[in-house]
Amino acid sequence: MKISRLLEQDKITISFEVFPPKKAEKFEAVKTASEQIAQLHPDFMSVTYGAGGSTAGFTAELAAELKKDTGVPVLPHLTCVGSSKEHADRMIDTYIREGIDNIMVLRGDIPSDGIIEQDFAHASDLIAYIKEKTDLCIGGACYPEGHIESVNKNADLKYLKAKVDAGCDFLTTQMFFDNNIFYNFLYRAREAGIRVPVLAGIMPITNAKQLSRSVALSGTNVPERFRAIVDTFADNPAAMKQAGIVYASEQIIDLIANGVKHIHVYSMNKPDVAAGILNNLSEILR
Ligand code: FAD
After folding, report:
1. Number of structural domains, the chain?
2. For residue 210, what are the domain limits?
3. Closest CA to 199 of 176, 165, 217
4. Which residues lie across from 199 on neighbouring strands?
5. What pLDDT, in 10s, does the model give residues 227-244?
């Protein structure tokens, strides 16, 4: 099912993200965890694409098997980095052959050696290419705090509008820990003429290392309230996990209370975390 159709319905949607392994011997464990998440009946599941295309085959295999074995709509990712036109064609053909209706298109992070395939410089280039060739529903990324390479938020929004105009059917945000940043972004995006649905990306932080890694990669602001939680519970893994699930659940409840309908949870192959969040929302989502 096309995700754009799901998002048109007058209902709250919750989707989960999983990432494929880099090595074949880990595939079955990741698949089992992903299937457990699928059994929670999310509206769809996304499957990331390892940096520079390092998981291309596993992304496609995991997405196809999830769709076939669980019936949950899937959203495999694809990046410009590591994708020549021929490679992109092969990935797209695979998805169409497997009956997958959606694709999340990203530029990818520039590797430290700076070497990337030259066919698609920006996500908008690959989006326009796919839109012209196929009927796939296309997602793109957006950054409530501005993309880390952007000179300022206005420039970022200008390019985001161009990306949507190139053929994005919906956007998913980078993680944020302060909902006011998201509300402010949504207002500015709408003012800039961006009308497609925007899914709020929520990352449940379940250990302190995960927080420092995520913040280093994305530059996301960590509010004092959340920093205090991490400082207090960092050395108690079970308490940190519980606090992280509660914090993410509270963010989602506040979003829903403020009219946000579509939530994407970076569930990181953790069925217990995904289940913990849904448990906290059971009456709200009923
Ligand atoms: P773009 O939209 O191309 O933007 C990148 C930068 O270039 C921005 O600063 C933008 O303002 C600027 N820009 C855009 N167009 C132009 C233009 N025409 N001229 C000049 N500047 C321009 N990475 C992975 O490797 N695999 C994944 O599976 C993955 N999934 C992600 C999912 C989400 C929801 C998010 C938020 C990020 C994900 N990423 C993933 C990370 C992403 O690849 C990086 O953040 C990357 O640095 C930017 O990707 P993008 O698609 O936003 O790029």
Report:
1. 1
2. 3-285
3. 176
4. 172
5. 999 999 999 999 999 999
pLDDT of residue 254 exceeding 80: yes
Which helix H or strand E contains 103, and what residues bound it? strand 102-106
**Ligand 1 pocket at CB < 6 A:** 48-49, 51, 77, 79, 106-109, 122-124, 141, 147, 149-150, 156, 159, 163, 172, 174, 201
Residues 126, 78: contact at Cβ < 8 Å?
Answer: yes
Identify the band that residue 268 occupies on the pLDDT scale cut at 50, 70 and 90: very high
Tens-place pLDDT, residues 122-160: 999 999 999 999 999 999 999 999 999 999 999 999 999
Which own/partner contact pairs does 128-131 have at CB distance under 8 Å and 24+ positions apart?
A: 128/166, 128/167, 129/85, 129/88, 130/88, 130/92, 130/103, 130/105, 130/167, 131/166, 131/167
Atom of ligand 1 nearest to the CA of 140: 51
For residue 185, the domain's CATH number is: 3.20.20.220
**Residue at token pair 């797209």:** 92
Give the span between the Cα atoms of 40 and 14, in whole angstroms: 10
Q: pLDDT tens for residues 103-126?
A: 999 999 888 777 777 799 999 999
Closest-CA residue to 88 (of 142, 141, 131): 131
In this structure, which residue's CA is closest to atom 19 in ligand 1?
159
Distance 110 CA to ligand 1 centre (A): 10
Catalytic machinery residues: 17
Tell me if 252 sits within 8 A of 281, measured CB to CB.
Answer: yes
- Which phi and psi angles does 272 have, rounded to 5°? -65, -35
Say how many residues make up the chain.
286
For residue 190, what are its two tokens? 């709408």
Amino acid at 136: L
pLDDT at 118: 78
pLDDT value of position 87: 95
